[in-house]
Amino acid sequence: MYYIDVILPIPIRQAFTYSVNKDEALFLKPGMRVAVPFGRSKVYTAIVFRSATAQEPGYPTKSIDHILDEAPLINSHQLKHWQWMASYYLCTLGEVVRAALPSLFLLESETMVRLKETELIDESILDDDEFQVVEALGHQQTLHINDIRSILDRHSVVKVLQGLLEKDCILIHEEVQERYKPRLKTFIRLRADLHQESALNEVLEQMSRAHAQRLALMKMYLLTADPNTEDISQVDLQKASEVSPGVIKALLDKGLMEQYVKQMDRLDFYPGSVANLPQLSSHQLTALEEIEDYHGQELPVLLHGVTGSGKTALYIHLIARQLEAGNQVLYLVPEIALTTQLIQRLQAFFGEFLGVYHSRYNLQERAEVWHNVAAKKQKARLIIGARSAIFLPFQNLGLVVIDEEHEPSFKQHNPAPRYHGRDSALVLAQHHGARVVMGSATPSLESSYLADKGNYGLVKMPYRYNKMLMPQMELIDIREGYRKKRMTGHFSERLIEQMSESLESGSQVILFQNRRGYSPVLSCSTCGVVSECPNCDVSLSYHEYQQQLRCHYCGYSMPVPVECPACGSATLDAKGLGTQQVEAEVKELFPDYRVARMDQDTTRGKKAHSRLINQFEDREIDILVGTQMLAKGLDFAGVKLVGVMNADNLLSFPDFRAHERCFQLLVQVGGRSGRQSEQGLVLIQAFNPYHTILQQVTQYDYPAMYSQETEERRQFKYPPFYRVIRLTFKDRNRQKMQQASRWFATLLRHALQVEILGPEVPVIGRIRNQYLTHILIKFDRDLSAYAIKETIYRAENRFKGLKEFSTVRIVMDVDPY
DNA sequence: AGCACGCCGACT
DNA sequence: GTCGGCGTGCTC
Ligand SMILES: [Zn+2]
Ligand SMILES: [Zn+2]
């Protein structure tokens, strides 16, 4: 007997050992999948983690069910990277596997139920539930356990099934279905000999009476001869020859045409590249040389280039060199939804090499990209993807591009693994010996700091491409405006005046309404009460479209009440999104121009976002009102003026990064203006325009922001000088949760000579009826994170031994920002 | 994480 | 009396 260690995709911090026979032992290698029985009855997909040994473990083992792969699905680079991730981000390998593998590869067994093929079932011995199940099985041969749950309208159906099993009515079995199915499509073609015109004519003559069939056959001949058509489906021919399906069926029956099946590509196919590499300016050339120089020294590069400096063109040159060398390239972007423009641009140069990977792809599509990358297929040599693309089976990664490096959305918050896409990609690149370039117009403080320390090479591009000037920034004091009653709604006189001028000259305008995390609520104008979620400590948000109130945290929903539940008055008032209000005001101020809104509401659908962008690009919209999404890497040629409705509320967030984020956001939004011809103008309305950050924004004074912020971070022990690990305690019982967190904090204070903050109740103290509290562990980044994490684990183990806290869950988040 | 076992309140 | 709630422990 031989034994293998496997990883199961579950949050348990240990490997499991299964027995295999000799043949299996020789065959199985790390990274292959095996189906294993686990627990009572379920069969799970597990990943072989350690090859077989003859060493018998000290406990009984089960044997594997069967082997799922002929060759490892996961390569050694990946296993190494995933192990790093689990240990750095304090999660289990199983959790990493869950996140990393397209779920298609992680089959679980499904419990299926069938009627036993006996004569007649004596229905009198069945109770109501049992009868219902048997009746349903009469209609449908097999039922999934979930079907039975919905038939009986309850979750626990095991008892019922057991009863039926005892009465010998049904069979239960566990089924594992291989769910990856290549997409097959059926096409038709002429019988081989009919490609000869003479042969065809002969046939046509013989069928002089079947007019429609003749027509279809002739059309088929023409379509086949056309070099532009490839495969012809039955429907294609029907449409082309305008005959009924029966006609074509008749031709098939006669054997004049035949069917064949072809495996189709599910992924978008990008046509081959047409464009030459973009011409670089002398500034860009210098930057490119500097980058390559640092790369020669094996340093990742931080490319700090102002908006419009042409960073993408540099990436394109770097990518081209890697592709020429036959290497794979990963291009990470913060949010794939926002990359239509980027994909269009890259496909002009690298069409045939380009693959895209993100969470909006369905399971089959993701599996297909995975296979393409693993096979080093040409069409997957350059992968554009969101953070999860770091899990793909790269083998010879030559370059990782991390675009908009400063974007906080690179960090995954829930569920585990709570990893940072950029930081994990850096480690991945290190494992591969790949080069890295991280780009931003407003680098994150962490990255700038590491560049300062010499961990990264820093390359600057302070000028816009084509000598365009940076947009001019101007602050508008709206406190004055409100005091003197000079405001029209949210608009200052200056903003209105500039908008008119801009619109009249034919330019487009972007208005930025930045209320982070703000969603519309319903409040009573009589008593002021806002409807709250019964399960969470948050107000319900108002969904105009569906006329309901919904909780974003637990999904609770209720119809919009007519009367205030607190005081009974019918004076409920929906406060719309900030963007909605601004949009309404704009329509009133500029009735002759076309206004559109870009926020969570209007970009709900899959394509809504890119449709809006295209409309704006095509100048079908004059004024675009939007939220943060406007700040991210979009290029609009026709925009001269950008207005920021209220800069203060960016600064008022209780987050140590509020200032940094404000600077980044404003500079990025401002960068949307004046990209093509004239110098752009950015008007920033603020109640306190003298705030240093706002002053630094108007001067584009990144160095000043950087030195001021780093000083504060150093003083208050925040990243990048200190590392932060956040522990969240959760329980339905508030007291128990509080006690547990206090116990844990005390233990940590004894065990660690570092700063422990809390327990402290977070902004939202209850979600899904679970009470929450935080403990923050802060320690100098030069201390060994490894040792501290070990201590946390030891504390957790002791904690788990305490019965009184057994229901309390601890969520660990490393670098929780 | 699932999942089953087992113990207690509140209904036919 | 039974049903279903949830606390408890286990999974190679
Ligand atoms: Zn809720
Ligand atoms: Zn009221």
List the helices and strands and how they pair.
Blueprint: E1 2-7, E2 16-20, H1 22-27, E3 33-38, E4 42-53, E5 62-63, E6 66-67, H2 76-88, H3 93-100, E7 110-115, H4 128-139, E8 142-144, H5 145-152, H6 158-166, E9 170-175, E10 183-190, H7 197-206, H8 211-225, H9 234-241, H10 245-253, E11 257-264, H11 282-296, E12 301-305, H12 311-324, E13 328-332, H13 340-350, E14 354-357, H14 363-374, E15 382-385, E16 397-402, H15 421-432, E17 435-440, H16 445-452, E18 457-461, E19 472-477, H17 478-483, H18 493-504, E20 508-512, E21 521-524, E22 541-543, E23 548-550, E24 557-559, E25 572-575, H19 578-589, E26 595-598, H20 608-617, E27 623-626, E28 639-644, H21 648-651, H22 658-670, E29 681-686, H23 692-698, H24 702-715, E30 722-731, H25 734-751, E31 755-760, E32 766-767, E33 770-780, H26 785-800, E34 809-814
Parallel strand pairs: 2-5, 12-17, 12-18, 13-15, 13-16, 14-15, 16-17, 19-29, 20-27, 20-28, 26-27, 28-29
Antiparallel strand pairs: 1-2, 1-4, 3-4, 3-6, 7-8, 7-9, 10-11, 21-25, 22-23, 23-24, 30-33, 30-34, 31-33, 32-33
Helix pairs in contact: 2-3, 2-15, 8-9, 8-10, 11-12, 22-23, 25-26
Bound molecules: zinc ion (2 copies).
It binds a DNA duplex (12 and 12 nucleotides) through residues 3, 5-6, 8-12, 14-19, 36-42, 57, 59-62, 94-95, 98, 154, 156, 158, 732, 803, 806-807.
Binding site for Zn(2+) 2: 533, 536, 551, 554
Keywords: ATP-binding, DNA replication, DNA-binding, Helicase, Hydrolase, Isomerase, Metal-binding, Nucleotide-binding, Primosome, Zinc
Family: Belongs to the helicase family. PriA subfamily.
